[in-house]
Amino acid sequence: MLTYEQQKRILDLIIVVILLIIFLPFWIIVPTLLVISDGFPILFSHKRMGKGGKEFYMKKFRSMIKNAHEILHEQNSELLEKFKNSDWKFPANEDPRITSLGKVLRTLTIDEFPQLFNVLKGEMSMVGPRAYMKKELNEQTKKYPKTKKYVKHILSIKPGITGPWQTTGRNEIPFPQRAKIDAEYAQQKNIWNDIKIILKTPKAMISKW
Asked: What was the pLDDT predicted at 87?
């Protein structure tokens, strides 16, 4: 009998192949629009923590101005403070770094499509906890000390493109609750739960529109 990890990997590969085929036009249209509107690069790579705390570069279609990360951390202390106080998440319309096209991509969740290649590489799964930045996770656990007990569970499995918190409230869920939800999911290891979350994801995506 296959283990949960083996079942999960098979499910990941099946879903990724299906989505790559279904959304094939987007791999042509989106890069073209990005180049026309703001030039290269098309993709944005960002360090996130994976299974066991190992860092990897998570891919996204670029939805921000060039050098947005450096601008946030080195040139705009006021925006960085606001970002931290909002549990490292706030609406796209409040972030001046996001481009007009980027707002559309984020609203439709198209910016996250390249993460399918992270799944193919085995760095992520279709379903899993949020892929946290190391600095974000460190600062959030300092701010909310009671959440430290959740971290070992969150990092015990691969992060996901979608997951339990993404399908139950996304940005509206504060970090302590989000960490608890992710930790509980990580401990369940139930393939049927993964399938349920995948089936709920389209509705969660539409609810952002």
From this structure: 59
Q: Residue 158 and residue 150: Cα distance in Å, rounded?
A: 15
**How far is the CA of 11 from the CAs of 6, 8, 191, in angstroms?**
9, 5, 9
Q: Which two tokens stand for residue 118?
A: 């992270």
User: What's the pLDDT at 152?
Assistant: 95
Query: pTM score, two decimals?
Result: 0.86
Place of tokens 């390249």: 114
Q: Quick one: pLDDT at residue 166?
A: 83
d(CA 121, CA 13): 10
Average pLDDT per block of 10 residues along the chain, 209 residues long: 94 96 93 92 93 96 80 63 64 74 88 96 96 91 94 96 83 85 94 94 75
Rounded Cα distance between 134 and 141, Å, is 11
Structural contact between residues 127 and 197, judged by C-beta atoms closer than 8 angstroms: yes
Following CA atoms 152, 158, 164, 167 in sequence, which dihedral angle do they give, to the nearest 10 degrees? 140
Alpha-carbon 102 to chain mean position: 15
Output the CA–CA distances (angstroms, integers) from residue 110 to 23, 81, 86, 205, in the order listed: 10, 28, 23, 10
Residue 105 · residue 61 · CB < 8 Å: yes
Paired tokens of 62: 């670029």
CA 166, 147, 97 angle in degrees (round to 5)? 50
